[in-house]
Amino acid sequence: MTADPTTVRAGSGGKPPKATSAPLAPGAVVPAATPAARGGEPHVTRPQDYDAVLLLGFGGPEGPDDVMPFLRNVTAGRGIPDERLAEVAEHYHHFDGVSPINAQNRALREALAAELQRTGPALPVLWGNRNFAPYLTDTLHEAHEAGHRRLLVLATSAYSCYSSCRQYREDLADALQATGLGEHLEIDKIRVFFDHPGFVTPFVEAVDAALVELAGRGRTRVQVLFATHSIPVGDAERSGPPELDLGPGGAYEAQHLAVGEAVMSRVSVPQGLVVGSQLVYQSRSGPPSQPWLEPDINDAIAALAAADDRPDAVVIAPIGFVSDHLEVLWDLDNEAIETATDHGIDAVRVPTPGVDPTFVAGLADLVRERVEGRAVEERAALTDLGPWNDVCRPGCCANARRPFSPVLAGVAP
Question: Are 34 and 188 in contact (CB under 8 A)?
């Protein structure tokens, strides 16, 4: 018999083991879902009351002693030796062992809670991480002890692939089993929001400002580099629902390309400036034998420098990220800017949405979308790919290297 979760905090204080099952209500096809989402329709158009919003983050170290435990959590099950992790750890130690991501999520939590209080629904905003404190298991316990029974999860990732969506849903299943709260909590997840105006508009405004700045410096040829995290090609091919044919890069690449096009179609190019754009990747971490999405941003800058029509400046727009966390600061502000400088190319890196009021208002709109059960045709989306599914489809965003694990917010497997 499962222990009473009000008296025993099972599974708290760390990253939980992989779940072996996920709770499924009678007649439901979506584990642990609210009544509105249990039937498995791609878009949930029935209104649903929630008790709280759960901001689900990646997590990061907040001191030198946290770095290696954090990296072991991130890479658990992948067999990566500590020697390799120590190399990555140096990036964190460059910032005194502190990742900015937790502070950014604290700020986002406060901003979203204030926006929901202002515009409704006035729901509390909780915060839990996948890979470091505050751990998701502890947050689920806190939610239950506060009397919350229906949670709407907002993951801090805007796109579809294993590492940016399905792995979050696996971790929800892991935490639910580890805490013993499967019979006590119902959990839905907000759709990936890559093309919601609240996410796209801050990039439009930031690229606009960067182009004006570069024009003021006398630049005439500019390339906008839309940067995102590289992933294994096999995972990219499997991103999104299996029945969709969105090209060799799957939904992940298609969504990023669509966002880049949405941004470029809305920027105002200063007179006398010739502007092009391309999608580039960063932060590759796999072995050399494993193909990952390319081109790497540094290779792309080198190729631009060698071209006959070389630009005299680049704008780096990190559209793959919601905040200026360590991979943005290290891989872009250090490595990519240094590469551009070495090749005699001016470079401006624009900010991520962070707590931009437009972004925060967009997240609040996504909460209302689910509370209202808003009709699909009334939902905000700036590309032909959206609005994306509320409930992930069977086999969506499979991991090419692992068997399916239990997940929430989607139809099995």
Answer: yes
Cα four-point dihedral sign 326, 332, 336, 337: negative
What confidence tens digit (pLDDT) does each residue in 226-280 have?
A: 999 999 999 999 999 999 999 999 999 999 999 999 999 999 999 999 999 999 9
Domain that holds residue 289: 197-349
Question: Which segments in the chain show pLDDT lower than 70?
Answer: 1-8
Query: Are 179 and 203 found together in one domain?
Result: no
Whether residues 228 and 328 share a domain: the answer is yes
CATH code (residue 112): 3.40.50.1400
What pLDDT, on a 0 to 100 scale, did the predictor assign at position 14? 87
Give the pLDDT confidence score for residue 8 in this predicted structure.
55
Same domain, 360 and 392: yes
Both 186 and 280 in one domain: the answer is: no
Q: What are 316-332's pLDDT values in tens digits?
A: 999 999 999 999 999 99
For residue 11, being part of any structural domain is answered with: yes
Asked which of 303, 323, 349 is the last residue of a domain, the reply is: 349
Task: Give the chain's domain count.
Answer: 2
